Amino acid sequence: MAGIPNSQAVIRERREKLFSLLVRGMKPNEIAKVLKVDNSTVTRDVQYLTTQSQNYLNDLAKQTIPFMYQSAIEGIREVLKERWNIYTAVPTVEGNEGINWNHKLVALKLAKECHQAYFECLNSGPSIMHVQMLEDKLAQIEESAASA
Known about the structure:
- The chain has 148 residues and is an all-alpha fold.
- It has four helices and no strands.
- It has helices spanning 7-23, 28-35, 39-88, 101-147.
- The radius of gyration is 27 Å and the shape is elongated.
């Protein structure tokens, strides 16, 4: 049995080649000829690779969305702090000579936009997290049903 390759390794290698051929723009029937497999094998492998890609993106989103959400909120807070510095700047103080009422009005508009963005983050963030939690529970139920 030492001469027989591991079937999982063979499948993995075939899928890697198939993916490379897909990226090059080859059609499934052409790939089947190149890999010397049936069209149905190519179809199954493409379905498998598609599912793997979706799982990868879902996992990536679950890992990065909370961080990105927090970063966005912290970024908005930093903009609001700087906006306050601009709005309260006294033009006669050294370093503030270029600040005028136009700058102050723009700072107020920026504050409004930041508060709107902040509200949108607070409004949509928990919903996104809840949907992800429900998707996780659904996946667990589906796995349980499949194994039963």
